Every structure is written in structure tokens, then in C-alpha cells.
């Protein structure tokens, strides 16, 4: 008995140990699974994580952070663009005057401008230092959101090349003035201001401002030409400074090629710079007609200048030609289309009068809108932005229509995308009495006349903002006119009209049944006012439509019930089939 009890106890202990180890393993697995579920893969964006980031972004928007305070610069704001312009002016100052003052000593040494140079130099240095701080706190886009975390901004700034140029351009090279007095370089080239050449490392900010302006301006081609002209002038200026410096090292007046300081006029600063600029222009543009070099150094410099002129200026002139062509591309395209139409009319012999009318129509469209093809221009935009532009342009016009007043905003937004602009020439009939009404018209510009059948008697005149044909596009049953035009409408001069087709309206109303009922009721009121509505026919059609709607609803509910029953039967069939398979398996085994 004792041996049996001992064996039983040992068995129970073993089982308890197995259960305990199993529980421990389960607990470890549960903890591990929790960690795995909490750890989100890199490619998966967790909603709660996004909510936390959004909350953090809202906090960041309150202000930027540096030493506990918020300092984040949004590069898309106007204030940032204005700051870039200020930095660009400082860069241009250094680009032009550092080398110019280093070579033309009289420009640097004039006592009356010495305080001005000190002020401008160190004002630009202050702008550079502030810009380095601004650059370090500029936000950037990550996954479509503006990053405002200060640590990320600093890391992004240090990973770029910008911090190197920002440091290089503010190095205190002016300390060399301690041993080399800045304004004592009489007949000495270069002057001590040459130590400030490191300020030119800020040029990338100038290019950034150029790109931003080219993107934002409404006249990009004009700005590109101005930018190229500025680049040409700067290159000629630098080359003029090099020519004057080489003349100094070779010796002024030592031969006919170098600059000659002899004479009162030649010794003046104005003559020195103008002649150097003139020589640089002739050389870089490969025009020539300059004194022939007389020693090896002069020959090497002229050869280098000619090569630079051929390569650089050929590229620049090519770019200018391309820009000018782009400025005229709309006119050239319009002229080609007009020439094609004129050739077709001449081939088909349509007559002089019609040819003249077509040519006058072309001239009017070019004068008013530059023959702008709105659909082609906006084709590159996403649908959302197209809708926004259409709403801004056409929504006020559409609200002038009586039947569309107080409509749902969603319906109006859908309709503005359907409006099409049409231009009519003098004497053109927009519609004639008896025509089937398939469009409604809104007058944007011009004057229209409602004329009698004789074509001479004027019954009414329509101006900008007038609307006609709005009832016919609703296709109301009971309209005694049969949705036909009741008057002749003719364009007095050139007229611009917005057109809304019946099919486009019905497609838009399919998603707004309540709005369709409201518009139909308003159209009926207009017809009742003119005595053009057959009430009995309208009521019969309305009752028929309501009965059809009820029948459709009943049919939909019946179909839904049948689908539910079919799903249940399918589930029962699947379950019974599984049971039969299990029984067959048991029988076989």
C-alpha cells in the first residue's frame, strides 16, 4: 500500500509539474504575443500612432522649439519667401562688390564711401548668421506632413550640405584686417577685402530664391529672361575684374593689350571700370576687335576667355531663344489653327462673307482670352483642384439661375464642372422658336436680342447675368410647349455664354433625388406663372412615378428577402454536406 501511495504521489507531482511548466510557457507566449501585437511593422501606419502625431503636430503649430521655445520655419509661407529675397540681396552685394573692391582700389579706398562699406559688409554678415539659424529650423515634408520636431529638423539639417556652406560663409576671415589694413591698398591688387570671398558660398540660397520666384510668379518667362541677363552681367563683371587684375600684374601700359593708366581720363575709376567691362563684353561674346595679346600670359587669358565665351554664351543665348519661343507658343499655335481653318475654307469655297465672319471670330477669341483652352490647361490638375477652380470661377454665375437658388452645395459643385463656355458671333442665333431645348444658357458677357419671327422686331434684350432655357432642361411632363423653344434669341455682338446640357444636369441630379424634386417644383411654378403647365398630365405623371417608385422599393425588399433566404439555404446545404462527408469517413474507417 505504501508503495502504491508513493507511486500515486509521484505521478501527481509529475502532472502538477507539467501543468505548471505549461502555464509558464503559456504566460511567456502571451507576453510575447502582446509585445508583437504592440510592435507595429515599419510599413504599417497605426491609427493611434497617427493620432498621437497629429496631436503633437497641433502642439508644434503653436510655435517653434529651440532651448525650450518653439521656432519652426514653414518654407511655404510668404514670410519665408521675403526672407529669402533679403538673403539674396546680401548675396548679390557680395557677388558684385567683393571682387570689384578687391581689384579696383579706388572703389575700395574712397573716404566718403568707407563707412558705407563697413555698414553693408557687417549687415550682410548679420543676415548670413540669422539665415543659418533660419535654415536650421526650416520644416520639411515627410509622408506629406510638415515636420516640426526640433530634433528631426536639426538631424535633417546636419545630414544636408547646407550646414557646411552656412559655416564657411560666416567664417571670420575679416580677422586678417588686423595684419592687413582694409583701406590702405593704393595701387595694390588685390585689396584686403579679397578675404571676404568666402561669402560667395551662400550662392545656393540665391538659386533657391530664383526657383521659388519662377514657380510663384505669373510671368515665368519674363523672370527667366531677367535671370539670364543678370547672369550675363555678373559673368562680364567678373571677367572685367580679372582683366584689370592681370593688367596690374603684367604692368599697366607695358604694352597695347593691358590697361593704360597714363592720362587723367584713364586714371579715373569710371574709365577703368567701363573700359574693362567693354573689353570683357567684346571678348566673352567672341566679337573680338580688341588689342592683340603680346605675351604668353595674355594669349592664355584671351584663349580661356574665348573658350568660356563660346561655351557659356552659346548656352545662354540658346536658353534665351527657347524662352522667347515659349513666350510665343500660344500665339503660334493659335495662328496655325487659324491658318488651317482658312485653308479648309478656301479649299471648300465657302464664300468670302463666311470666311470674314470666321476670321473675325478668331480675332475676338484671341483678343478676349488669348484662345485659351481651359480643358487642356487644367488637364494636369487632379479632379479635386479642378473642382475648386471651377467653383471659384462659376459658382456665383450658377447661383443667379432662379431654379438653382438655395440648392445643395454638393449639387452646385457637380454642376459647375458641367458648364461649358461658348462664343457666338454677331447675328448668330443661339436658339430658334420651335427647337427642342437641350441646353440652358447663362450670359457671361455681351448682349442678346429676343426677336420675332420676322427677324427685325426686337421683343427684349438680355445682358450679362441673364438666363434662358432653364425649364426645358428639367424635362417636366405636362409642359405645353413640349420642351421646345418659345422665342428666337440672337446675339447682337460677340457674346460669351455658359451652356449646361440637359444630359449633364440629369446625370448630376441622379445622386440628389430630393434636389431633383425641388427643382421640378420650381420649374412647375415658373410654368404655372406663364400658364404653360398641364396640371392633370403633370399629376398623372407624378402619380405614375410615385407608384413606380413604390413598386421598385417593394421589388428591392423582395429581392433582399430572397437573398437572405438563399444565404440560409446555402449555409444549411454546406453544413449538411459536411456532416455527410464525416459519416462517409466513419463508414470507410
Automatic annotation (TrEMBL):
Molecular-function GO terms, alphabetical: cGMP binding; intracellularly cAMP-activated cation channel activity; intracellularly cGMP-activated cation channel activity; protein-containing complex binding
Claim: Transport is one of the keywords in the record: yes
PROSITE patterns per the UniProt record, alphabetical: CNMP_BINDING_1, CNMP_BINDING_2, CNMP_BINDING_3
Compartment list: Membrane
SUPFAM superfamilies for the chain: cAMP-binding domain-like (SSF51206), Voltage-gated potassium channels (SSF81324)
Main localization (coarse): membrane
CDD domains, sorted: CAP_ED (cd00038)
Topology within the bilayer: Multi-pass membrane protein
Database matches in InterPro entries: CLZ_dom, CNG_cation_channel, cNMP-bd_CS, cNMP-bd_dom, cNMP-bd_dom_sf, Ion_trans_dom, RmlC-like_jellyroll
Record carries keyword Acyltransferase: no
Transmembrane parts of this sequence: 81-100, 228-250, 299-321
Keywords annotated in UniProt: Ion channel, Ion transport, Ligand-gated ion channel, Membrane, Transmembrane, Transmembrane helix, Transport
Highest taxon above the source species: Eukaryota
A single Gene Ontology CC term: plasma membrane
Residues in Cyclic nucleotide-binding domain copies: 403-505
Protein name in the entry: Cyclic nucleotide-binding domain-containing protein
Organism per entry: Diabrotica balteata (Banded cucumber beetle)
Amino acid at each position: 500500500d505504501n508503495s502504491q501511495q508513493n507511486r500515486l504521489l509521484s505521478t501527481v507531482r509529475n502532472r502538477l509539474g507539467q501543468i505548471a511548466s505549461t502555464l509558464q510557457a503559456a504566460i511567456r507566449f502571451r507576453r510575447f504575443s502582446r509585445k508583437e501585437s504592440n510592435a507595429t511593422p515599419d510599413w504599417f501606419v497605426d491609427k493611434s500612432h497617427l493620432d498621437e502625431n497629429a496631436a503633437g503636430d497641433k502642439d508644434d503649430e503653436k510655435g517653434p522649439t529651440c532651448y525650450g521655445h518653439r521656432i519652426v520655419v514653414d518654407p511655404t509661407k510668404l514670410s519665408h519667401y521675403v526672407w529669402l529675397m533679403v538673403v539674396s540681396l546680401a548675396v548679390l552685394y557680395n557677388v558684385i562688390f567683393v571682387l570689384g573692391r578687391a581689384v579696383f582700389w579706388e572703389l575700395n579706398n574712397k573716404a566718403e564711401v568707407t563707412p558705407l562699406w563697413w555698414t553693408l559688409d557687417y549687415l550682410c554678415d548679420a543676415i548670413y548668421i540669422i539665415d543659418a539659424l533660419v535654415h536650421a529650423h526650416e520644416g520639411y515634408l515627410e509622408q506629406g506632413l510638415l515636420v516640426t520636431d526640433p530634433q528631426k529638423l536639426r538631424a535633417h539639417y546636419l545630414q544636408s550640405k547646407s550646414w557646411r556652406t552656412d559655416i564657411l560663409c560666416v567664417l571670420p576671415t575679416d580677422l586678417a584686417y588686423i595684419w592687413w589694413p582694409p583701406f590702405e591698398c593704393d595701387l595694390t591688387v588685390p585689396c584686403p577685402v579679397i578675404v571676404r570671398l568666402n561669402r560667395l558660398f551662400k550662392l545656393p540660397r540665391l538659386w533657391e530664391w530664383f526657383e521659388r520666384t519662377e514657380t510663384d510668379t505669373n510671368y515665368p518667362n519674363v523672370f527667366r529672361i531677367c535671370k539670364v541677363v543678370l547672369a550675363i552681367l555678373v559673368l562680364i563683371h567678373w571677367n572685367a575684374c580679372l582683366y584689370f587684375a592681370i593688367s596690374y600684374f603684367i604692368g599697366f601700359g607695358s604694352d597695347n593689350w593691358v590697361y593704360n593708366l597714363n592720362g587723367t581720363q584713364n586714371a579715373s575709376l569710371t574709365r577703368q571700370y567701363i573700359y574693362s567691362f567693354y573689353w570683357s563684353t567684346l571678348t566673352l561674346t567672341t566679337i573680338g576687335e580688341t588689342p592683340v595679346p603680346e605675351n604668353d600670359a595674355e594669349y592664355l587669358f584671351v584663349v580661356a576667355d574665348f573658350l568660356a565665351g563660346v561655351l557659356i554664351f552659346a548656352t545662354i543665348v540658346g536658353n534665351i531663344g527657347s524662352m522667347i519661343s515659349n513666350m510665343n507658343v500660344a500665339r503660334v499655335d493659335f495662328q496655325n489653327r487659324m491658318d488651317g481653318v482658312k485653308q479648309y475654307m478656301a479649299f471648300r469655297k465657302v464664300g468670302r462673307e463666311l470666311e470674314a465672319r470666321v476670321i473675325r471670330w478668331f480675332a475676338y477669341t484671341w483678343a478676349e482670352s488669348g484662345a485659351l483652352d481651359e480643358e487642356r490647361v487644367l488637364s494636369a490638375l487632379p479632379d479635386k483642384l479642378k473642382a475648386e477652380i471651377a467653383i471659384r470661377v462659376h459658382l456665383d454665375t450658377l447661383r443667379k439661375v432662379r431654379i438653382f437658388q438655395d440648392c445643395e452645395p454638393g449639387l452646385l459643385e457637380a454642376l459647375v464642372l458641367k458648364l461649358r463656355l461658348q462664343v457666338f458671333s454677331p447675328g448668330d442665333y443661339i436658339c430658334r422658336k420651335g427647337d427642342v431645348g437641350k441646353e440652358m444658357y447663362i450670359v457671361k458677357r455681351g448682349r442678346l436680342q429676343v426677336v420675332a419671327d420676322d427677324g427685325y422686331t426686337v421683343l427684349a434684350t438680355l445682358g450679362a447675368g441673364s438666363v434662358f432655357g432653364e425649364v426645358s432642361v428639367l424635362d417636366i411632363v405636362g409642359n405645353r410647349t413640349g420642351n421646345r423653344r418659345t422665342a428666337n434669341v440672337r446675339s447682337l455682338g460677340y457674346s460669351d455664354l455658359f451652356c449646361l446640357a440637359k444630359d449633364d444636369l440629369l446625370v448630376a441630379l441622379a445622386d440628389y433625388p430630393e434636389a431633383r424634386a425641388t427643382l421640378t417644383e420650381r420649374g412647375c411654378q415658373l410654368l404655372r406663372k406663364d400658364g404653360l403647365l398641364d396640371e392633370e398630365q403633370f399629376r398623372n405623371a407624378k402619380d405614375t412615378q410615385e407608384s413606380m417608385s413604390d413598386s421598385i422599393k417593394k421589388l428591392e425588399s423582395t429581392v433582399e428577402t430572397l437573398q437572405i433566404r438563399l444565404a440560409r439555404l446555402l449555409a444549411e446545404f454546406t453544413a449538411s454536406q459536411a456532416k455527410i462527408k464525416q459519416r462517409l469517413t466513419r463508414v470507410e474507417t
